[in-house]
Amino acid sequence: MNYEHIKTTILIVLITISVVLTWQLYTYQPEIALLDDTERYVPSDSLNEEREERKLKDVLKPEQIVVHQSDQFAMIPRRDESFDKLYNKLLRSNLDEVDLLATGPFPKSVEGPGVEIIFPAAIPADLLFSLFETNENELVVPITNVNRMFLYISSNKEVHMQWLSGEEERVIELETDFPVGELHAFFDLFEEYKAVRPVIARDATTMLNEMVYIPTEPITAPRLSFQTVPLSINFYKQTLFTDPGSVKYYQQSDGEDSYTDGNRIITLQDNGLFMEYINPIFIETQERNSKHIIQNSYEFINSHGGWSDDYLLSSWRSNDLRDEAEFLLDVNGYPILSMDGTGSMALNVSRSGNQIVHYSRPLFALDHAPIDVSDRIQLPSGQELLERLEEPEFFIDTRLSKAVIGYEMIIRNTSFVTLEPHWFIHYGNRWQKVTFEEDKGGSNGLE
């Protein structure tokens, strides 16, 4: 009898211990605190204040427009009103096919002047067609991507246009209804644009030339200082997590703040000036998204109004595992290509299959107007740039894909930045700043 009582007592004790341990395990949250109610829900009005939406044509722009006139070339500065005026006028044109199996040359040899439009990266042909607002014809072209366009006046006094796909080594010719007289108006301003020349002369051995243009005279660019405007992390928590109420805060071992719903995670970096969003996937095989990464990343940023400044498409990459797109901040017609000597001021979006898996961006915007615009820096001419680059024997000019004036952002503190103009080159598939002081950089001034 006593033996049965002992077994019953032991069983009750074990059940009680099991219930207590289960409850403790269920409620245990080591060093993780729920977000305060004041931070968990962001009023819709404040969210709307953060939103900055753009049309696709506002973030997908040429990086250079070069006017050809005989054997002379002049570049329309990106900050010049003629730049956007010409491009936007072109996008309002109707298109029709002329020669979809053209053999070149590119740019086309014509008696009169022409305009070369250079994109920062290859643009999908169907995406480029979608930018032409009044084009009613459904054209099917035998090229996938477009790197450059060339406008010229044909023999029948109409404005025609070439599209070049550098990777596919193909060119097509289209007819536009761009008014001839209005195109001549841009040609008439040739002397007011910046004189440039190709780094390498047109190659007679190839029909398709993608020339790199550099200014023949020194360039003066402003040094700018800005107050910064912080962007609320609450906005991105509310936007990027499907259930903001389940988000928890914790501090990582390196001291950086993080927010997670158990799957997605936002990590703050550099004292909260930047954020990184990661949305991991656990499926081994992912169906590829039918949309191009440019379109997909644009829609992702636009969906939460993430265009806090003038960001423009800079590059994209695609492989079997991941697609990536980068949008660089453009200020005063110049891209910000470096921050304190590393990185760039950019929105970076990565996709795997159908899912956005990575998103990094600044958590601040620049004030609408710079504090001081009186300080101007004179930068060497393109010829001086080439001479600087050619000092070492290992420099190969054919590997030079871009040479531009850009800004380096110096972060003075969390509320104040300075933009310093410099020469930058895209060489060996990466951006490098070029210095001209003997005691800086490498033997050829590359950093």
Automatic annotation (TrEMBL):
Membrane-spanning intervals of the chain: 9-26
Transmembrane helix keyword on record: yes
Q: Where is the Regulatory protein YycH domain?
A: 4-447
Keywords for this protein? Membrane, Transmembrane, Transmembrane helix
Pfam families referenced in this protein's UniProt entry, alphabetically: YycH
Judging by the UniProt lineage, the source's domain of life is Bacteria
Q: What is this protein called?
A: Two-component system YycF/YycG regulatory protein YycH
Gene source species: Halalkalibacter krulwichiae
